[in-house]
Design goal:
Helices cover 59% and strands 6% of the residues. The protein has 16 helices and five strands. The protein has a five-stranded parallel beta sheet with strand order 2-3-4-1-5, sandwiched between helices. The longest helix has 41 residues. It is globular, with a radius of gyration of 24 Å. The protein starts with 10 loop residues before the first helix and ends with a helix. 37% of the residues are buried.
Length: 395
């Protein structure tokens, strides 16, 4: 089975990376078009959920194995992040600091141990601070001969110009709903109707589509979020709804993190030689404290990501309301809520809906700038107040 077979909706990017892997396999001196030539610094950009990191790991597998389609043994090690020639720089926090990359830069100068290349993947490269980016410049410009850097980010604009000038950029597109649904059916055995709904409601975000298709609680929380937004009738209701949104995001983050935290702690205790139920020796407490600190940072990021996902879902809701108001012949994302959206569309002018969409984007910007999420959500929801005409007349 090819390493590319689990990817979907990115045929052009797959063809480019596969050709580059073939070029690397043939050797630097081989003939070929410029589009097929291998380079040692790459930037994979695309919207969230487009499969940036999945494509990066598939390319890494092909490069390390020395074959354009990869091999099963290398793929298994890359999937487990255990291959000695693969290094991953990913942050559980909000930013990637210079200290986070110092060790991985040092390792980049080692020759590959068993593979054809040493590959370093930087997930969420847009989270690098300017100091971190400047620290990487020379490494990206002149890496060792058999070291390959692969950076992943939503867009080129998220990185400083000097980084962009030193990498070869590959842009991914948003997969179609049909492509994502087909992937869920093929890979996860999801019912076709549920797969289509999950792909549609996730707006083709592959990871979120998988979660919605396989987790009933995630589907329930999303539905509750949108129904609460449609029910906002006053400023006091906006405040109450904002508080509930924070709770929902927290529940979602907790559901994602609890199992992983427990597994990490059990693994750490096992590696330190501490039996289940045994007291942790004082000498080993600093290692567990470092793990707990990492988990707390991850929980903070998961909460912020959960709030942002709520805002993305709300944007899809008011986008649908605007389409209804404009009588546009465009498929709705949240068609299961069409009755409620019809009422909301009748209770305000299209200009008001556009203002709500602007307020949602402003809330995302404010939260990204460390404004209190509760305050940002409250301000956004005030613009989302919709009251039926009968209530407006009574007032």
């Amino acid at each position: 089975m090819s390493v590319w077979s689990e990817l979907t909706g990115q045929d052009a990017a797959i063809a480019l990376f596969r050709a580059a892997a073939e070029s690397a396999e043939a050797g630097a001196g081989s003939a070929g078009s410029s589009a097929q030539q291998m380079t040692h610094s790459w930037l994979v950009t695309g919207p969230p959920g487009s499969g940036r990191s999945n494509l990066a790991y598939a390319f890494a597998t092909a490069l390390i194995s020395g074959t354009a389609d990869g091999d099963e043994r290398t793929q298994a090690q890359v999937d487990a992040r255990s291959h000695p020639d693969l290094h991953v720089l990913a942050t559980e926090g909000v930013i990637i600091k210079r200290d986070d990359v110092r060790d991985i830069v040092r390792r980049s100068h080692y020759a590959p141990s068993i593979g054809r290349h040493r590959v370093i993947i930087v997930e969420d490269a847009d989270r690098m601070t300017e100091q971190t980016s400047n620290f990487l410049l020379k490494e990206l410009e002149e890496p060792p001969e058999r070291t390959v850097w692969i950076l992943c980010a939503p867009s080129e604009a998220d990185l400083i110009p000097t980084i962009r000038s030193r990498v070869r950029s590959v842009r991914l597109q948003v997969p179609s709903i049909a492509d994502v649904a087909a992937l869920l059916e093929r890979r996860d055995g999801v019912d076709p109707v549920l797969a289509e709904r999950a792909a549609r409601e996730s707006q083709s975000h592959i990871g979120m589509a998988h979660r919605l298709a396989t987790n009933e609680e995630a589907r329930r929380r999303r539905s509750e979020t949108l129904e609460l937004a449609l029910a906002v009738r006053s400023a006091s209701g906006a405040v109450t709804t904002a508080a509930r949104f924070i709770e929902i995001a927290g529940e979602d983050a907790k559901a994602i993190g609890e199992l992983r935290d427990a597994e990490e702690r059990a693994s750490a205790l096992h590696s330190l030689g501490v039996a289940p139920g045994q007291a942790v020796p004082n000498a080993l407490r600093p290692q567990l404290k470092a793990l707990e600190d990492d988990q707390k940072r991850r929980a903070t990021r998961s909460l912020r990501d959960g709030i942002d996902r709520i805002l993305v879902d709300l944007a899809s809701l008011y986008r649908d309301i605007l389409l209804i108001q404009l009588h546009a012949d465009v498929p709705l994302v949240n068609r299961e809520l069409e009755a409620g959206m019809q009422r909301a569309a009748a209770s305000a002018a299209p200009a008001r809906t556009l203002a709500t969409l602007d307020a949602i984007q402003q809330a995302r910007t404010r939260i990204d700038g460390n404004v209190s999420p509760a305050l940002a959500l409250e301000a956004m929801l005030v613009s989302a107040i919709r009251r039926p005409s009968t209530e407006r007349g009574a007032a």
